[in-house]
Amino acid sequence: MGSHTHEHRHGGHGHSHGEHGHTHDGIDWSTRIGYLRREDAVAAEANAGIAERLGGGLAGGATIVDIGSGAGGQAAAFARTLAGRGGGRIVLVDAVPELLDAAGEAVAEALGGGVTGESVIVEKVCVDAASDELLKQVPEADLVWASRVVHHLPDEQAGVDRLARLVNSGGLLALSEGGLATRYLPWDTGVGEPGLQDRLIAARDLWFARMRAEMPGAQRMPYGWGAALSKAGLADVTAFSALIDHPAPAAPAVREAVVEWLTALSERMDEDLSGTDRDAVRALLDPAADTYVGARDDIFLLSAATVYLGRRP
């Protein structure tokens, strides 16, 4: 949501639930590892800040559980924080085996395989976050982290309740949900009508609402994430936001990520865009056009991820 708010209302990797790569949201996350890695790369600084803020106060030997670990960007940041505090254990949890492998590789790379790495134990658990099997297979932890996962579960409050049960007494549950939608296009791109970015965000919100409505067994949660943490029995509920800011002219890696987000968004949300906007998006994605987002020096990336946290009494 890694990066944190790119793909739809809350972001792009709610992938800790389902079978054979397909999850409750109907997305085959096993095909999106490259996308998730690029998302992690552009969010690296924000991820490091989150890891230090949440993990910096943990005692040596602490256990961190990462629910829906994706390509492992945040887990890698947590692993570095644990290594800097004398070690500990990080448990990667996902329902997609390919993502678990990718996250394991990211953590191993972050630790460098040296002496520092040996102080951090890494475990992988393949389980659906919407199932009570989670409570049987995943150990209790000092910090349970879930980035843009719960909004993909059919019953979000039940999902929060389940995650809260994984937290040790005195430990933290932290959910990265919501924040500010990612912006990366100038107001007037030179093709179609100005204000395309706002209409893309509106189309993404329609897609998200449809995804929730069509999800088997979906329950509405008509209140905010902080209230959900309180209802789960957690205390000292609060929140903070992490900024992801890559001003123009953005590095090639950022522009490449924008090309991929815009491509994915246009494929899913084409039906919710006007003909003019569909043509504009195609022009922005045409490598032969001078409007191509991958080559423009006015492309930027600005978003904020909000992290809600509560302590288990």
UniProtKB/TrEMBL annotation:
GO biological process per UniProt: methylation
Domain Methyltransferase type: 65-174
Biased composition (Basic residues): 1-15
InterPro entries, A to Z: Methyltransf_11, SAM-dependent_MTases_sf
Swiss-Prot/TrEMBL keywords: Methyltransferase, Transferase
A Gene Ontology molecular function term of the record: S-adenosylmethionine-dependent methyltransferase activity
Segments for region (Disordered): 1-26
Listed Basic and acidic residues bias regions: 16-26
Name of the protein this chain belongs to: Methyltransferase domain-containing protein
